[in-house]
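Q: Got a minute? One more chain.
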Amino acid sequence: MTTVCLVGDPEVTLQYELLSRETARDALATYDIAEPFANSLAVETVSLGAAVSLLNDLNWYCVRFVDEALVREPSVSREEWLSRDLATRIRDGTVRPAETDQRLKIYAVDEDDRLVDPVFAVREQGETPTHERGDDGETVVVRVTEDEFEG
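A: Always. Here it is, folded:
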């Protein structure tokens, strides 16, 4: 199963914003909703294509209420997330999954389960860099495109 996770803008309550609007509520109606991080919404889809399609369906809401749209595809990595752009490129075949593990955006997870203090890092010789912050050392690793990394 492929997981889609939307992390809300700190200024809004993401689940309220999505579930109070008919179009978003209808798009999410068939999924079991989880909240893996504070102010987030996650659902499991059947494939990477379905995940990207759901994000496209929710794009209007993503632009307004979401800080990060993440996808976890087990055929790429069971622990690391993909940015929305990278997931789309893999789905479209413009990037091979094996070529996605170098550029990373690493979040610390604070005591309130919020994703905080993102840092960009490059994986060297297969070693994942660590994040200097994180009360218990918990981090979330997101693979990103070259454009996201440099921009």
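A: The first strand starts at residue 2 and ends at 8.
Q: Perfect, thanks.
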